Amino acid sequence: MLRRWMGFLLLLGVVLAVQPGQRLPEFALLDPKGNLVTPATLRKPAVIVFWASWCTVCKAEFPGLHRVAEETRVPFYVISREPKDTKEVVLEYMRAFPRFIPLLASDRDKPHEVANRFKVLGQPWTFVVDAEGKVVALFAGRAGREALLDALLLAGVELP
């Protein structure tokens, strides 16, 4: 019964989240160098991944995502949806994934607030964005390599 309930909640979350064809919600976060990142300043196409430092699925998924980031040279922006993940925790965690661009709190936004604007209910949640800033694919849970590569093709990425 609990399993069915969890499946229903995940499905509901996917239905409520930012959908393919929609523009990214507004946000203003900082990259590790202190540069402000907004939907207008994202290098596009791009991948946005919501995660948490304690998430076991994220830990299992990140090496594969990182390989895709290395192979395609597409920017992967990672945003922790865990309010307790401090800047120090995020930057230490990301040392193992140098191709990822962690987005951190600014004086205008907090990462978990941005996750709420995307209507993200769990982690990892991955959004693939095209050059116009529209979502072309959403993965609630683990994003498989082939499905992610297909989504990048939809976003206009020329794969190697």
Automatic annotation (TrEMBL):
<dbReference type="InterPro" id="IPR000866">
    <property type="entry name" value="AhpC/TSA"/>
</dbReference>
<protein>
    <submittedName>
        <fullName>Redoxin domain-containing protein</fullName>
    </submittedName>
</protein>
<dbReference type="InterPro" id="IPR036249">
    <property type="entry name" value="Thioredoxin-like_sf"/>
</dbReference>
<dbReference type="Pfam" id="PF00578">
    <property type="entry name" value="AhpC-TSA"/>
</dbReference>
<feature type="domain" description="Thioredoxin">
    <location>
        <begin position="18"/>
        <end position="157"/>
    </location>
</feature>
<dbReference type="InterPro" id="IPR013766">
    <property type="entry name" value="Thioredoxin_domain"/>
</dbReference>
<dbReference type="InterPro" id="IPR050553">
    <property type="entry name" value="Thioredoxin_ResA/DsbE_sf"/>
</dbReference>
